[in-house]
Each structure stands twice: as structure tokens, then as C-alpha cells.
Prior knowledge:
Strand content: 15-25%
Oligomer: single chain
Amino acid sequence: MLVTKNLNIILLLGNTLLVSDAFVPTVPRFCLQPKSMLREKATETNEIDQRTGKRTGNSFLPEEAKIRGSEGNPIEKAKQEKDATSAFVDIYEYAAKIREGVMTWEEVEKADLDTRLKYVGMLHRNKRTPGQFMMRLKVPNGIVNSDQMRFYADSVEKYGEELGVVDITTRQNIQLRGIKIEDAPDIIDGLHARNQTSFQSALDNVRNMVGSPLAGIDDKELVDTRELCNALNDLVSLDAVSGTRGNPMWGNLPRKFNVAISGSRDDYAHTHINDIGLIPTPHATSGEMGFNVVLGGYMSIKRVAESIDSNMWIPADRNSVVTFTEAILRIFRDEGERKDRQKARLMWLVEKYGVEEFKLKVIEEVESYNRGVKIYDRQPVDTSAFERRPLLGVHKQPQPGKCRVGFLVPSGRLSQKECRIIADIADKYSNGEIRLTVEQNIILPNVDEGKVAELLNEPAFGPDSRLQINPGKIEGNVVSCTGAQFCGLALIETKGNAESIAKKLEKLVEVPKDIRIHWTGCPNSCGQVQLADIGIMGAPAKKTDPQTGNSVAVPGCKIFVGGRIGEDAHLELEPYKTGIPLTEEDLIPVLVDILKKEFGASDRQAHGV
């Protein structure tokens, strides 16, 4: 068994750094230690996990919340039976035993295997690849560097080219595929040494902090989101007492929780589908920059909800943003639903209170922290004409002589070789910095204007490469969930289909503007089909068997049309078409027809192409 005294030494390696090495902030890096973190409520206990030396996640819950959890759904009961934050240690101990040959992964307690290990970012893909996991990281504001990118490739290399892949997610995040328990400690230690963590990236935790991919390099920027995303990441995943990753204070939420901070009117962060969305808006009287707050946006199998106006505005300083977020997290943690997981999202709690009453509750909570933070009413927004700007291609930065270069990563999927190529390119042109977008693509910032032509001619972006700087208007805007290759919930394979069908559509039609096509394998809508121009969701379909003439079940889809992003964001909740077989001979004609009728597409042949 691993000596647990050494574990805390392992956990300390490199993990007190707050941001990626690619971004050196201009302000001191520190972890806020608010009064509310130090005070003890009468209903809390000081139960300490002897192996981690930290309080347990359950110890922060009021007694009433514990009772509701003990009577709740199976996941809540599993968290009550054994504190889920113990997974910070369990993963090391299981790995040691498997390496020693005294146990196998099949002997891991089932609740640990399929539930609690998610607290270290390990999600068992038991239906598709038994014994192998997806490891989800935390990448605040989507900023990584070349060293980290190479480490991702090294981490998955032993699992082969098919299973050992790296995915960019719709939260500007990274997921490593194929990971085995016995290899996890080395990967976790390597991440911590490189200023990253996988801890608290899944299940009932605050997920990756989404910010502007153009933070600090945008002439239309209203707020630089980098410091704020990193501060919130530390609030939820850095233990202020020990200085190590893994913060049990926020380690037992009723359900997952998403935060997005927009930096400009473009809303590259998609605030309208997050539990907390911060939209940059100056105060109408003082001119101070701050955020209008929207609350409750989420997507699930039972309900898809667009964020609602909270009638709250907060200043855009670090103290205000961290304090405000902490207040809502405390209310959600202690009062959120713990019986029906389909109702355990923030929106349901806001609706239970009513918007104005919830606002008053948040104000009361914030004032109790006594940090000088004030919440104001929502401020008027700029209604002048504005068009959301593209992220792909070459664009000048406000810094003299610098450009940003965005390129397509089809469906967000990267091979080991592509990770290393991107790392080399970043070292050569962007000082090693790599930025991820919620559209699952990459931006290289701060490229010297005089080197742009050389970059465009790199073989990495040649005609035979998947990576493209100036892709077509359709293939350059494809987003996809994991799909049936790895996800047991998916009804269809998404990533391969998304990439191949987009290429075929590019050859068939010409469109007057970028068309965003999103793919998702099931109604959980991880691919966010409701906000797409065209959304394709895995669903049942039937097709006539040519030999028997009988109607048979085949992989199929629903198609959504008309979602929007940006200032005029809108979720399209009703499908445009249903029961469409997924075969190209059935699906492509339907998509071409939609592109023509709804988006002004025309046949390429008609233009002599």
C-alpha cells in the first residue's frame, strides 16, 4: 500500500501555481482565503480524512443537506457512504496495488470505479473500453502550452493510435483517452508539475472555467478574463489550508456547476448555457466595467434551459467575482436538490426561490462575508450594431506587429502526432502558447506579423493535413461530442461522421456565411445541438430493408435548425426533422435541402466549381 504521508508531498508538486506557464500575469498570484472559508457554521462538522489531512467534502454540508443526501439518489448515497474527496488518495492506492499485482481493476469497489474516481477526473468507459478511463483536466480560460501538449501525447501513447487520443472539449478543456488506473498517478503528478490538475473536473463539481480565447489580445476586449478564470479555478479546486489541489469545501455539490466569463460582446464563452454567465457591461452611471449576470443555463436529457436574467450586476474586479461566485456556490451546495438528479441544477433552485427572492438571498450571503462587495441592479447593454467576429484565420492584434492565427481541429480530436506537431508550431511561432476555443479549435496568439506567411506554408497546415487555417464555411464550424466510440450513452458515432459529412457538404454546396453544424450522440446534448445553426442528435430511425421490404431500426438522428450564439443567443428546443437515418445517402440530401432553404446555399456546380 502507498504510504499516505508521501501522498501529500506528491500532491504539493507544482500545484500551488495558478496559471499556465504560457501566461505570466501582471498581478501577484495568490489564493483568496475568505472569511467564510474560515468560519464554522453550527451545523458543520470538522471531520478530517486521515489519509489526506483535509476535511471531508461531507463535513462542509449542513446536517439537513446530509439527511437529504442519505435519502437521495444512488450517487448521493455513494457520496454519503464514503466521502468522494477520498478519491484524491484512492487513485494512488489502487494504482499501487494493481502495479504490484495484488489486485486488478475489476476488483475496485464499484462505487469508486464508476462514481467516486470521477473526483480525480477519471471517468470509466465501461461499456466501450472496460478498464480504461477518460481523464478530464482543468484548463481555466483554455490556455495551455507546448510542454503540456507534448505531455498529453506522451500520456496516451501507450494505448495506441485508436484509443490513445486527445480531445478538445466544448468548455475549452482537454480530455485524455484510454487511461488505466495503474498509470493515473504518474499522469496526475506530471500535470501538477506542469501547473495543471484533473482533480474535481467531473461529477458533482464546478467544471472548467470558460473565458475569452482572445483575452489580452483583442482590440474590442471589455474584460481580460484570464485572471478571473484562474481565481475561480483556485476557489473551487485549490485547498487554501494545505496549498494542494483538491478542495473538499466545494467537493460535494448536488450536481455539476458551470461558469463562463465573457470578455467582449462576441460572447465567445457562451454565457447563455452556463449556471453562472458573466456578461461584460459598464455601469451606466460610473462607467466602471462589470458584469451583468445570467443564471441557470444548462443542457440535459430531461431539460434544456437557457440562462435567465438575474437582475444583478457586479464589478469586474477579482474580489467581487470570486465573492459572488462563492456565495452562489454555498447556497447551491447546501440547498440544491439531492434526490432527483434531473432537478439538481441551479435553475431549479432559482425557480424555487423566484428570481428576485434568489437575488436577495445572494445579496444577503455576499454581505455576510464582509468583503466590501456590492451587488447592483442589471445595467443597460450596448445596442449598437455589432457582428460576432471569426476566430479562425489570421487577424491582427492590438499589439503592434502581432497577429492571432486560429486553425481548425476537426471535431476537436487530436492524435498523438498532431499534439506534438502543434507543440512544435507553438514553440516556433507563439512562444509556446496555445489557446483552446469552445468550438474545439485552437488559436496561436502573438505571432509575429513577419512570420505569418511562413506559418501558413507549414506542412502542418498543408492540403493533406486535418489542421486548416482557412477551412471552408461548413467544415470550419463543426462541433462534436465524444460519440459512440467511447461514450456508452451515445446512440451514434459522431466525430468521424461530423468530419466526413462536413467535407462532403463543402464539395456539394456553397454557403454565403459560416454555418455551424453540431453533433451530439444522445439527448444529454454534450455537443450543444440546440445552439447550432444545424444540430444533429442521435435518435432512433427506421429504414426499409431492400431484401425483405420490412421497416427495420437503424442508427438515426433528429435535426435542429436555428440556434444562435453571441449577443442574440437562442436555443432551438424543437427538432426540425426527426427519424432521419444516419447513412450518407439519407442524411446528406436532407442537410443539403436545409442549407438551401434556410441558409441560402447553392450548388457548387452552378458556380462552375
